[in-house]
Automatic annotation (TrEMBL):
Signal peptide positions (record): 1-18
Sorted UniProt keywords: Signal
This protein's name: VCBS repeat-containing protein
Keyword Signal assigned: yes
Pfam families, per the entry: FG-GAP_3
């Protein structure tokens, strides 16, 4: 979706103008590669030409980059990517993220452009997709009676007591279902309910304000007290498209602070909001940036809570903010990712059982230009080795959007469940959902349920919905256009079916204690 959860490759050169080398005079005789490395690797990983096919560079990326580097008249056709409804370029001009005048000579730009076009492949190598079998015997499919056309499930979470909470972007509703998938109640919450944090005192709801990427400060948090005599409140407002929230006592003063990922569009930020007697006071940790998900954990074992966050857009990667003293943090990059990855999700889990937190990560966003099959997108596992993270495992999955690691079959090891929002609908639509059963030594067998592409899955959660001792899975659907005319039958089916969510009910007979990943 254009400008949706990620706005990745539009940001390849986002911070070029802020980099110290960007304004230097060019040495005569520099090659296109040398110039590209000079301009394009100061603020993020150098984007190699081989990351994308030649057509995508020529028609999508390079024109947008030219606009970002001040060549607005030359690339005027790209202007709509940088405007806000009713505001035009006002917000990016106010923050001076992009220059209004060119910052590079025509000769240098032409060399860079030609370097990418000469070196980019005609097509990416997409051979070697692992097979996915069907049926998925361990789970049975259950559907609610309600239909939404089009389905727009921005939030799906399994709650305690066998409840499912669902957010719908089109109607601006938060809906509650029981374990039998009957609708219990609904409430208007505004556009883009995206995340829930349950606490002993009540329920915190994160509302984006704009489902599509935007820097307009229309997002907010809603608090629903458990005491039904008390009305809901909005403790934090004026947020730039918040997409994830974590709660914890960050400065260790006995009060619960809030960690908020404001993805925004071009000018998002990661900040923690300090609880006080008169409300919450923000402290910016990283901005402008595009935080997508963040957790509060003592990552280095020093007794102080740290922050671990995933960032999208140009400087993609996973970073830690280690707490040095109360409320003071030191930023450190844990995993650097190139700007074409399409980061979509990460989670923390002790996968190898050595007592520290490892990282499960998915790359799969493919919304910022004509969707292409990227061989480097899929599920990654990074093992924690004394604070450094080493890639141990990769499962290729185009468009991977979520992953959960749990012992679904209760055989003593962790299996994986994943969804793809951008699968290869032409050749492998069944990859919309994949269950990876652990065979040992990081080998997995892949299976899925029948007609897995009956909807387009954008969200997923795991929990024991029916309280029978095993873990169930719920998938949330969002019908979004497919630009390929030959694949329109998928889109037509999504609208016709109108399925807002689907439950995969675990069919195991025996019950063992289970754990749950971070929300």
């Amino acid at each position: 979706m254009k400008g949706s959860i990620l706005f990745g490759m539009l940001m390849i050169f986002l911070l070029v103008m802020a980099c110290p080398e960007a304004g230097e005079n060019l040495a005569e005789g520099e090659t296109g590669e040398a110039l590209a490395r000079r301009y394009c690797s100061n603020c993020h990983q150098f984007p190699a030409p081989t990351l994308l096919d030649r057509t995508t560079w020529q028609q999508e990326i390079l024109p947008k980059m030219g606009y970002m580097m001040g060549m607005r008249q030359l690339y005027d056709s790209m202007a709509h990517h940088f405007t806000e409804e009713q505001l035009g370029t006002q917000l990016i001009d106010q923050t001076e993220i992009f220059p209004r005048e060119t910052t590079i000579s025509p000769e240098a730009w032409q060399k860079i452009r030609q370097f990418y076009l000469d070196q980019a492949p005609a097509q990416l190598d997409t051979a070697g997709r692992p097979p996915i079998t069907s049926p998925l015997d361990i789970f049975s499919v259950r559907l609610p009676e309600e239909r939404f056309s089009p389905p727009g499930t921005s939030l799906i979470q399994i709650m305690e007591g066998g409840k499912i909470m669902m957010g719908d972007i089109h109607q601006g509703l938060l809906l509650q279902y029981d374990r039998d998938l009957h609708l219990l109640k609904s409430a208007p919450v505004g556009t883009g309910a995206v995340h829930l944090n349950p606490t002993e005192e009540g329920l915190w709801l994160t509302v984006m304000g704009n489902f599509l990427a935007s820097d307009q400060a229309e997002g907010y948090l809603v608090f629903y007290p458990r005491d039904k005599q008390l009305p809901p409140t909005r403790p934090v407002t004026g947020l730039k498209r918040p997409v994830h929230t974590a709660l914890g006592d960050l400065n260790q003063d006995g009060q619960t602070d809030i960690l908020i990922c404001e993805f925004g569009k071009w000018n998002g930020q990661l900040s923690w909001w300090e609880a006080g007697g008169d409300g919450y006071r923000p402290h910016i940790l990283s901005g402008p940036s595009a935080p997508m998900r963040a957790y509060i954990e003592d990552l280095n074992g020093d007794g102080r809570p740290d922050i671990i966050a995933l960032f999208g857009q140009g400087r993609e990667g996973i970073r830690a903010f280690y707490q040095e003293e109360a409320g003071q943090f030191r930023e450190e990059e844990l995993i650097a990712l190139h700007p074409a990855m399409g980061s979509s999700f990460f989670n923390l889990r002790d996968v190898d059982g050595d007592g520290d937190l490892d990282i499960l990560y998915t790359a799969g966003d493919n919304a910022d230009y004509r969707p292409i099959r990227k061989p480097y997108q899929g599920i990654y596992l990074y093992l924690n080795e004394n604070g450094s993270f080493r890639q141990e495992f990769f499962y290729p999955l185009y468009g991977a959007y979520r992953v959960a690691a749990e012992d679904f079959d209760q055989d003593g090891d962790l299996d994986l469940a994943a969804i793809s929002f951008f699968p290869d609908y032409r050749n492998q639509p069944e990859a919309s959902f994949v269950y990876l059963e652990n065979q040992g030594d990081y080998q997995f067998s892949a299976s899925t349920f029948q007609d897995a592409a009956r909807e387009r899955w954008i969200s997923m959660d795991v929990g024991d919905l029916d309280a029978d001792g095993d873990l169930d899975i719920v998938l949330g659907a969002l019908a979004f256009e497919i630009p390929d005319a030959e694949l329109q039958h998928f889109q037509e089916a999504w609208l016709r079916n109108g399925i807002p969510f689907l439950v995969l009910e675990n069919q195991l007979d025996q019950a063992f204690p289970t754990t749950k990943l971070h929300n």
